[in-house]
């Protein structure tokens, strides 16, 4: 979420929708944040097709399904370079634990 604060500064009307297990994020309330939580796999594609693009910030991945599914649905995908993420073919890879690089990639995708 640290990266998204920077994005909101530049694009105040942008919205972040979080799917999946999000831990303590559920307790955070921001006007730009919508936490959906876990959804059945059969519904993930419907959520992804509504997205302008997909951001996959996971630091621990084998072969990330969300990145592959986003690409298969024709979505632009920004991901953190961790585990097998590079092989899944995201459009943009950012270094792990670098919220500024992640924010910059999101801002560039919104431009």
Order of helices and strands: HEEHEHEEH
- Overall pLDDT level: 92
Fraction of helical residues: 25-40%
What is the CA-atom radius of gyration, in angstroms?
Answer: 13 Å
* Proportion of beta-strand residues: 15-25%
Description:
This protein is of the alpha/beta class. Helices cover 35% and strands 19% of the residues. A three-stranded parallel β-sheet has the order 3-4-5, with helices on both faces. A two-stranded parallel ribbon has the order 1-2. Helix 1 (2-10) runs parallel beside helix 4 (99-110). It is globular. The model has no long low-confidence stretch (mean pLDDT 92).
Q: Topology of this structure?
A:
Blueprint: H1 2-10, E1 16-19, E2 33-37, H2 41-50, E3 53-56, H3 65-72, E4 76-80, E5 92-94, H4 99-110
Parallel strand pairs: 1-2, 3-4, 4-5
What distinguishing features does this structure have?
two-stranded parallel sheet, 4 helices, 5 strands, 3-stranded parallel beta sheet, 111 residues, alpha/beta
Give a short overview.
The protein is of the alpha/beta class.
């Amino acid at each position: 979420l640290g990266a998204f604060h920077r994005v909101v500064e530049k694009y105040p009307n942008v919205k972040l929708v979080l799917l999946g297990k999000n831990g303590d994020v559920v307790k955070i309330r921001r006007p730009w944040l919508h936490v959906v939580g876990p959804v059945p796999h059969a519904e993930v594609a419907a959520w992804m097709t509504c997205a302008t693009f997909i951001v996959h910030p996971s630091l621990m991945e084998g072969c990330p399904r969300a990145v592959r599914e986003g690409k298969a649905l024709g979505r632009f995908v920004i991901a953190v370079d961790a585990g097998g993420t590079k092989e899944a073919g995201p459009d943009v890879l950012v270094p792990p634990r670098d919220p500024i690089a992640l924010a910059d990639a999101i801002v560039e995708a919104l431009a």
